[in-house]
Sequence to fold (1446 residues):
Amino acid sequence: MSNSPHVPMIPTGQKSSWDAVINNRIFDDLNIESNAILLDVLRDSVGMLGVKRGCDLGTCGCCTVLIDGVPKLSCLTLAAETKGKQITTVEGLANGSHLHPIQKTFTECGGSQCGFCTPGFLVVISALLNENSNPNDREIKDAIEGNLCRCTGYQQIVDSVHAAAEILNSNQSVKDNTCAQVDPHPGIDRTTE
Amino acid sequence: MSKDKEIKGYRQQPGKIPFAKPGSGGREPFSKLRDLEMIPKSEGGYRAQPKGKNRHDHLLTGSTIGRRTPLVDSNWKVTGQAKYGDDIRLPNELIGRILRSPHHYARIRSIDTSEAESIKGVLAVETGQKHTDLFGVLPVTKDEHAMAVDKVRHVGDLVACVAAENESVALEALRKIKVDYEVLNPIIDMKKSLKDVEEPIHNRGKYHIGRSNVQKRVFQEFGNFESVKNPYVSSKSKWKYAGVNHGFTEPHAVVADWEPSGRLTLYTPQQVPHYVHRSLADVLKIPMHQINVHRTFVGGGFGGKSDPFPHEMCAAILARKTGRPVRITFDRDEVFYTNRGRHPSHIEMNLHADKEGRICGIETDALIDGGGFASFGHVTTYYNGVLHTAPYEIGSFHYTGARVWTNKPASGAMRGHGAVNSRCAVELGIDDICEQLEVDPITFRLANLLPPHSSTITGFRITSIGMRDCLEKVREACDWEQKFRKLPFGHGIGIGCGFFISGSGLPIHWDPNKFPHATVHLKIDMDGGVTIHTGAADIGQGSDTVVAQSVSEVLGLPIEMIRVKSRDSDTSPVDLGSYSSRVTFMNANAAISAAIKIRDELIKATADICNVEEKSLVIGDRRIYQKKDPAVGVSYLEALHKAQEERGALISSGAYRTPPMGGVHKGAAAGLAPAYSFSAYAAEVKVDAETGITEVVKVWAAHDCGRALNPLSVEGQIIGSCHMGLGQVLTEEMRYTKKGNLLNPNLLEYKIPTIHEMPEVVPIIVESNDPEGPFGAKEAGEGPLLPILPAVCNAVYDAIGIRTNELPITPDKLYKLIEKKVRSLKLDSPLNLPNPKLNYSKLQNTLEDRADNHKVRDQDRKLDPKREPYYNGTIFGKVSTIPPEEQDERWTLSVTPSEEYLANPRLAGSAWKHVEVRHMKRGDET
Amino acid sequence: MKSPPFKLFQPTSIDEAIEISKKFVQEQEDFDWIAGGTDLLPNYKWHLNTKPNVISLASIEELHRLDSEHIGAMVRLHDLAKSEFAHPIIRKAASSIASVLIRQSGTVGGNIALDTRCFWFNQAEEWRRSIEWCHKCDCGTSADCRVIPNQNELCVATYQADLAPSLLVLNAKIHLCGPEGSRTLFLSEFFELDGIKRNVLKQGEIITHLTLDNDISSWSGDYQKLSLRKSWDFPEAGVAVAWRLSDESNNENFELRIATTALESVPRLHQKLTSDALKNNSTIDEIASKLKKDVKPVNNTTFPPNYRKKMVEVLCKKALGGLKGVL
Fold:
């Protein structure tokens, strides 16, 4: 049997400082190894667990984040090259308790089933809607061709994008998620009688 | 809304001061009026539903059933807050990694872990030596270890595991484990597994079949085989199906944590937490009560997360040794080594029809490649046969099936478990037969369907059947008459049908007569919210939602007031989990029966408060009131508080078990289900004869789910099934080299269709209103996958006149067939291939008449409460009410092959040439 | 998945980059360049020929320039695909690469210098252990080539990049810069028929940019790609053609170029084939049939070589579709 060509995995221990603005929050006290991948840093050091690892090789899109507004595969991005940049993950799409329209329509149109690919789709679509508030089917498909979904067959995802575009173009906002829901002690509304 | 418009919920007794309203402050203070007579109309179907009455009709309150309901956990998913396996991060965690075998088949002589253990940051290295207890998903075929004990059985089989402070150290440690292997001769080709060898991959002791690698074999003969001897037309095909993987986006991950109490909590994305629970107890040798299995969010299952897995055992073993939580997350290639995907199969299918256009015989022989372990294979072997005995009435059914071990990753259960491949072969056979009979394939199918409330040839009890509706609706929607055999060359349309179980009749771990299949607990306290405890595993299909909907419907509450606790085995009742499409049928039924108990208490409390008869009360939107005078009644909360007097929180428990059914022959329970789903799809394709590239243009997909409790989810399941099925039929394949190396264990080379390959799918929901389903519902998760494969294959034939018998139909394979035909017809270009045409024979009219008659027959049977039994065989002139074997001595019912058959068996049938060790005469055993 | 540790260098100018590489060359220390990372990082995660040092080109502003005659090496493929400056053939080829997300990171230079691919090579370390390693990486183990067994002299890994053939037919020049200075050559001279060596880049040398003739707008053409899926997949065969008709009534000033990719270890400009074809007044079908015979794919990608070879003929016919009536 031939010798193993294995290269030792133990890091040298040298780390350099890293900072970024992630979801509008400044992270400036992190130290990373120079071979650190952005996906690993976001999940393991920053704690943005909404960024998902599906294949780790750029073929599923689950790990997509926005870097200065551009959707990129965080699994194929060296963390060191994003130093000082604006990074948006799925956790940064909602405005407080108000969901982004695409988040809302994903739930209403069935864009999300198991939900694992959802964060990647959402950031890609939010970037698309930012650029083009009324995309057609062709444009939607081209934008999400790098995202793999195994549950939905994509159709309800495309529906969700159209529905979100409608919300955006009507200038409505998504209502606060935390506001009171239903009262278990209702009276009778006589006005409808 | 001014205050004076609000009226008290009931005519208050004089002198009493009302309590404060603890539930107030909500957004919708007024109950919405509902016309209870109108409620059964569901959004799913075209027509008013349901057809006929259902036993749950009186429970409908118009709350959520039949409405497009967003998944109750979807806000977690869209905000990134859903915690999947790898998102469980406990303080002080260690990273676990697994050393895997580089050999297909080898004996482990020794393992030296000393160097690995000496690396700084390595806390534990474990091997299989100390953990020798077997486990497996089926109690009859436990054959897996946490890690290899004596032998490794495929490349990627587990050899050892490491827990370390970080991934880099763990990976380094793996390289330093020295394993001394004695390499054995691997078996890669499943045909070779049928033969006796020196060193079978497993040793099943007295149950071992000769010295072969046959893990399970099935023989079944039902019906009258006279007709098969001299059929009018036959279609014979030999199929090869590649193995496919579930391709869920979330790789397996697990976190094991031994709590200070000495109890283990295992966090795992599992479809079937209960089996892991049992297996952990076996392997760790601790009682089950000492384990809590926490199901995390599951990033796609499709059957691939329903086995208890060795890596789950490894995490627990490592955590126990180190005293710290251990997290193991797979790389994508490890997912492929774990596999449990659809079996690579060789299926030989002979279909026969008589002059009347009846299917007088189906002969199937299925050899399926199980890989290194048993997994669900015992069941798969049966399913490859028995699940294509419906929806058609057939004259005879012969099936031989064998599942063999090979030195490859284990196959197992995958969406449409066991039914997909043989279904594809049957539906293509029917198309071929129709071509020979010169009849329309949809008419042919319509003229050969079993009626509602009938018995299949193998004794399955069919209750509701929406097959006819599916076919008719698809025919209309896709404009079949104008397209079939009429589209220009290169364009085609095809039809395919499906039939699938809605829950397995037999809970494999216990006696169904003693324990229920599913149990659901409800708890309601003063706040009015309803907590559901269920063990049903939500894997993204929306099981939490459907259970919540069922309770919300019965109690007249908005779904926001329902919360589902389904994660921890500590709090949820034992449940068989999410497989065999059982959750909606069984858990929703259990939830309804639990909710009925609460409902009765609320109604009684209201009757007490209002001093009216219980019978006169109905439940509407958050109110319980007199039907004839809705002003007389109380709010839900008031009734609840009244019911809580003297006792506190209301709790109830509901359960579901299947009714007694099915035959008594060996294997009769396999494929038995309390209800069955049906589907029919038409697919339109474009085939480029010059390149062999097939593009699916549009799919019309009708599925009979009994009743769409949540049409949004049903449509999602239909479209998603199409996507997955399209993958299997066009692009996906686990590719092995001749030596058995898996060439494509990654998502670049394992070709899941992208959005550009996905056609428009028109989902058509058919509601047949199952008499036993919850509100009439049946499954919609797996059955919808079946018809897409044959629909596409038949459409390819319609387009270019070429029938495939190998999946996936990748362009290179199709092009080979095209070239072959071009050569045989001596054409100069593939573009000159003949376009299939159809001229109806006289039989077409006969079949149309029969289909019309049967339509009336079916409708009558559906609505007649005093209907008589109907046994398969009636169409061949048997008396419908008596089992055919009782009226015809030539009607066979046999599960063992005859000497005559064994003299000349088919491929899988040759597995029966071996004698099981326990049946060998003394002295024969070597 | 984790790559072995490496030191990362992030120079901000070409000079600085060459300075660093020069030092490594002198000290005989191994290093790699990284551009977009979409090719290198998967290889590193699989432990394929990893190096202890990596020099990133991302921060070098001068490599990002894009106009009609100049394509910087660090221009993102997505920007190229959407660029109004780029020739339509280039735009078409660029937009067919992998997926939009890969194109957002991947660069022109990275695509030109894409590592060759092979079923037996592009696998995880554990996988390669199970076949006792492969000749293209893991050297020193004296592993055999698995595609053409019983030899470890020639690596036949396939060059599967989309951009090269369209640049070849547009007669692009490639500009390199290294410790020994700058040089310019035709792209057709850039590649070397060896799956390991791949191209003429010397140790420490980088691609800085590509230039195109100022008359390229007078060229028409097409790029046709064979792949199983329309996203993610590398080409299984790719044919680019470009032609120019100086005088439409007359064939004499007719120029034609054809290039292929994903069929061998290098992309190839089929110069002899086209000049013969023009000499003999060949028809489209004849040219396509000749092209089929001119390529020699091996069995190391998704589709079998036989099929890829046959499809070259079909792709070529489709690509030359615009010349119906002329040829």
